[in-house]
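Shall we go through a protein fold together, starting from nothing but its sequence? Please make up or recall a protein chain and show it to me in full. Go ahead whenever you are ready, and we will take it from there.
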Amino acid sequence: MIRAVLDANVFVSAAVRPEGPPGQLFSLLLRGDAFVLVMSPAIAAEIADALRYPAARRCIRGRIDASQWLDSILLLADLVDDGKLPSRASEDPDDDKYLHAAVAGRASVVVSGDQHLLALNSYDGVPIIRPRAFPTLLVESKRRRPLAELRGKAKLAPGYDYKAGRAGAR
């Protein structure tokens, strides 16, 4: 089964617009058989902080209790310890926590809309993709693709641009 680290922006986007691509990821997570969510305490804290931002609270506007929603998701997550990478990997050092969680949690993918993470394309063999590309990756994994392909060592889906999150050649 795919193990995935989701960036805080994916959580906030899902809370603000549940019908969008990030929101659909959480519908898949709640089904229980789509993927395993990998998180660390530092990631959970960043998500909690982001959900408390005034702009996020205005957009959520009582649709959900953000704190309770996050607590529910944390119950489903595979938590890994916080840690540091041997050297800074991302242009934004705050993003390194996602890369560490991916490696520590043996994740198959990091899902993010963050430009600093997406610019890396992958880290230690773990692809970094946009939220709208993740459902396609899940479909490909259900077709019993070899793990090497899922960890970015081979092309995942011919003709699919995982970085852009759409079909078509780059």
Observations:
- Residues 41-52 form the longest helix (12 residues).
